[in-house]
């Protein structure tokens, strides 16, 4: 039987200053900070998770903020654009909101859908699209009513150095269904109602360069640990060399780089973000895994403090 991922679990990117990062994704886009922790491989750097009220797979964007880090270049071997889904009839609200914060917006069309395209403060490309699928958000922040709030990922646009091979991985390895083609893109769909539409740019792209304003990796969903092991065997049988399972506290992860250069992760849906915090307290405290807890004082001293706050609209 062909295995199929339900869709995107999370997307992880590099950014600069953590306060500006929080201001954009919480203060302007209205997402909830569901976890404040550190990069387990570089504990001097935050790892921040923003999503819906509980951090549901398919809503989570995560960041490694490093103030003063090098600027990246979006290109082949990366997620070129992160797509968010908003309720039908909401694009006008978001166009007005982004204009109020002086964020330049471009209207684009792709495969019979209309998008608002813009960039965050670090140059990461974002777009909003109206979709009927997906439950309405239950999280309201910064004056965004739930009837217009971001539901989660609509999907992502992939830039590949070898689109034919990336297309093969999406369909043959991950089990996505090719459903449309047009405007220079090939569209794939997964089984979930969010994080389910992947547009692959059909033209090969020159290599990008990692750094602030670029996506580090895209993660796909596994139901549980047992299925993740099956995914590992499947990925290996298709010629890739997945990593051993990595404990990321809130999910387990394996990684492999597909032949178009994009770093793919397969992450488990459980255990989720409430494993070490009450659901109504998510993101309020710096959470560390047990092996870093003895070093908390040093770690906190090396991290720049930031707050989740509403952002005033500048007049004039």
3D structure, described in words:
By secondary structure, this protein is α+β, with helices and mostly antiparallel strands. It has a single domain (8-302), classed as 2,3-Dihydroxybiphenyl 1,2-Dioxygenase, domain 1 (Roll). Helix content is 16%, strand content 35%. It has helices spanning 18-28, 91-100, 163-173, 225-237, 296-302, and strands at residues 8-15, 32-39, 42-51, 60-65, 78-86, 106-110, 113-119, 125-130, 152-159, 177-182, 185-189, 197-201, 214-222, 246-247, 251-257, 263-271. The strands form two sheets. It has an eight-stranded mixed beta sheet with strand order 2-3-4-1-13-16-15-14. An eight-stranded mixed beta sheet has the order 6-7-8-5-9-12-11-10, with helices on one face. Keywords: Dioxygenase, Oxidoreductase. It holds the Pfam family Glyoxalase. This is Ring-cleaving dioxygenase MhqO. GO terms for molecular function: dioxygenase activity.
Which properties best describe this structure?
35% strand; 2,3-Dihydroxybiphenyl 1,2-Dioxygenase, domain 1; alpha+beta; 316 residues; globular; eight-stranded mixed sheet
């Amino acid at each position: 039987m062909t295995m199929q991922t339900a869709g995107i679990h999370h997307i992880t990117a590099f950014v600069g200053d953590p306060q500006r990062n929080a201001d954009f994704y919480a203060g302007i886009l209205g997402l909830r900070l569901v976890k404040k922790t550190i990069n387990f491989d570089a504990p001097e750097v935050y790892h921040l998770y923003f999503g819906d009220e509980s951090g549901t797979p398919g809503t989570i964007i995560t960041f490694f903020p490093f103030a003063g880090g090098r600027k990246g270049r979006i290109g082949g071997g990366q997620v070129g654009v992160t797509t968010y889904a908003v309720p039908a009839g909401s694009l006008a609200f978001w166009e007005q909101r982004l204009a109020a914060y002086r964020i330049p917006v471009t209207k684009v069309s792709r495969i019979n859908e209309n998008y608002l395209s813009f960039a965050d403060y670090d140059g990461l490309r974002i777009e909003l699209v109206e979709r009927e699928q997906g439950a309405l958000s239950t999280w309201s922040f910064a004056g965004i009513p739930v009837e217009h709030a971001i539901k989660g990922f609509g999907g992502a646009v992939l830039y590949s150095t070898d689109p034919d091979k990336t297309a093969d991985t999406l369909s043959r390895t991950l089990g996505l269904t090719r459903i449309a083609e047009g405007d220079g893109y090939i569209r794939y769909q997964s089984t979930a109602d969010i994080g389910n539409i992947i547009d692959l740019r059909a033209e090969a792209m020159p290599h990008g360069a990692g750094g602030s304003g670029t996506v580090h990796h895209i993660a796909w969903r596994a139901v549980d640990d047992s299925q993740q092991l099956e995914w590992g065997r499947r990925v290996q049988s298709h010629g890739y060399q997945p990593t051993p399972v990595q404990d990321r506290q809130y999910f387990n992860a394996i990684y492999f780089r597909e032949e178009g250069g994009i770093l793919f992760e397969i992450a488990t849906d459980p255990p989720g973000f409430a494993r070490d915090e009450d659901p109504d307290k998510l993101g309020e405290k710096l959470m560390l895994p047990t092996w870093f807890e003895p070093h908390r004082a040093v770690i906190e001293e090396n991290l720049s403090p930031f707050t989740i706050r509403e952002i005033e609209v500048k007049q004039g």
